[in-house]
Design a protein that fits this description.
Blueprint: E1 2-6, H1 10-13, H2 15-28, E2 33-37, H3 44-50, E3 56-61, H4 63-73, E4 81-86, H5 92-97, E5 105-112, E6 117-120, E7 123-127, H6 128-138, H7 144-157, E8 161-167, E9 170-183, E10 205-211, H8 215-224, E11 237-242, E12 244-257, E13 260-277, E14 279-281
Parallel strand pairs: 1-2, 1-3, 3-4, 4-14
Antiparallel strand pairs: 5-6, 5-13, 7-9, 7-12, 8-9, 8-12, 9-10, 10-11, 12-13
Length: 283
Amino acid sequence: MDLILYNPLSKNNKSNVQTNKLVRQYKKNRTPFRLKSILKVDDITKYLEHKKEIDKVILLGGDGTINRFVNDIVNYNITQDIILKPNGSGNDFLRSLKLMEEKPQYIMESIYDTGFKTYFINGTGMGVDGFVGYLIDKNINKGIFGYFKATIKALLTYIPEPLTVTIDGETHHFEKAYLITMNNGRYFGGGMKIAPNGNINDEYLDVVVAHSANKLQLIFIFLTIYLGKHPKFKKYVFYKRGKHIKAEFTSPQITQADGENYYDITSIEAKSTNKPIHFKSFK
């Protein structure tokens, strides 16, 4: 039996259309299934343990839904197949997954100076990156145009500040940093290729820092991210891969992990949990 887990809040509260479409497909094919809202399952690991008849989990949603699932099962040795079907506003992790789904992926963790720890699968970041997530949450339009509009607004209003980044013991200082992202997947912001060398099948994170540029230069560089060409601007874009990253701004920031926002964070530590998980895309 298949378990269909959906998030009624995905894709600007319009996920029911896609959910009903999938349910009709299952009924037409007479395939046994159980439909559950991920918001109504208090403990997904306990639920799966008690439903031994479930051999496949269809996860219907975007990056936020996947993030919730990852945080719920990180300490559970899941044996069921996990199939992702897009139904969110970003779907950035799924973009990477379609390119490299033959091997398992790794769950990453981020630890904040507040003591809070969360897990992510696609990417985490702070500075403009977190500010964009904040603006998106307030925006009715959460599609690609919504991300574009929010990013331009964030770039124009954000005031850069000093940032210290330590990657596998090597420290780098930036006097005027706009953002830092630490990505497992290649994409963020609804299809922007922020980490063109990203590999979800290894335990490395791709670190990107935008720094030193003026606003006009920054907007131009931002436009090149869609094609993954921004690392060529070495004067303004720092790009390095590593397994253990610590980033610290001089004042509290908004951060994001798979698009989920956290506030008043000055420093973040990101690394692999060494926990593999094997997501596959819906065919």
